[in-house]
Amino acid sequence: MNTISKTKIQIEKIKESKLPLVNFKNLQFGKIFSDHMFMADYKNGEWQNLKILPFAPIELSPSCAALHYGQAIFEGMKAYKNNKNEIMLFRPFANAKRINSSAKRLCMPEIPEELFIDAIKQLVKIDADWVPALEGYSLYIRPFLFASEELLGVRPSEEYKFMIITCPVGAYYNEEVHVKIETEFSRASEGGVGFAKAAGNYATALYPAKLGQDQGYKQLVWTDAKEHKYIEESGTMNVMFQIGDTLVTPSTELKTILAGITRDSVLTLARELGIKVEERRVSVEEVIAAARNGQLKDAFGTGTAATLAQISSITFNNERFTLPAIETRKLSNEIGKLIQDIKRGRVADTHDWVYQF
Ligand code: COI
What we know:
With 357 residues, the protein is an alpha+beta fold. The protein is globular, with a radius of gyration of 21 Å. The two termini are 27 Å apart.
């Protein structure tokens, strides 16, 4: 575990908030940033230079290692306000663990949990007015870590920057999600970094996703890199199917998919609601067979940005299967509502998921 040389975060506040300029009715995801950001340096084996400062461009050397060899990882989480105007985070300790599992795989230094949580807490407190209280809105928090050593040699960088930026967001999808099962390109392979929130995983996905979008699909459903027979994820989300009465989702065992925190929360709640859950390999064949014989009752993606995004249709080999109307989907509507109610403090948090301050 890495040490922190100075735990105290130095704070420099913005002179004039940009908040009055924001049109909350027209928020594009990740385009408007709140007033402040957090920044820390990793140097000589220690976290140091911890500061919160006005959101602004940063200076980097053109030889900064992350720009060349992609040692860059991130997390995503959201802050909400309850009806007493208190700020609530959802499972931030799970994000702290996951960024360190990504860091380990990418040969990067771990971020002490105390530093991760405290930095988020202080940053969000300073920008508390940016946390929307409106239903359907939240403050998206983006912690990220990248190699900052000036280095073109291929080896793990010895210097890093850990930063956090935040942005107010509304719904991630505001139109129907039509997906296509991808059988040519793949997102991740066994032994690779598919389980990590590595920037490169998202870069890999852009070209196939663009081809799909050009054909009218909002997202791709990724399949395994070896045979394209098994389902992995959908777009940037984990994916789940209700086949008959069973909720089926790809297991994280092969480490090719992200161990989503929303994924885990949905599965936990489903089990508690008495729904049969199966985490296992899910073949394209069985999903298509279920769609054909009317047993595919529901399909949705789960992730921090969208929480739960219901899929309207699935296309495989140019054949489109339309799923039941979204308003009739008992399982995803019930769990989607429950998770929002927990995040916003409207129902008891029996799992200790909510971190309030
Ligand atoms: C998430 O939903 O968890 C994501 O990581 C999506 C993000 C890349 C916008």
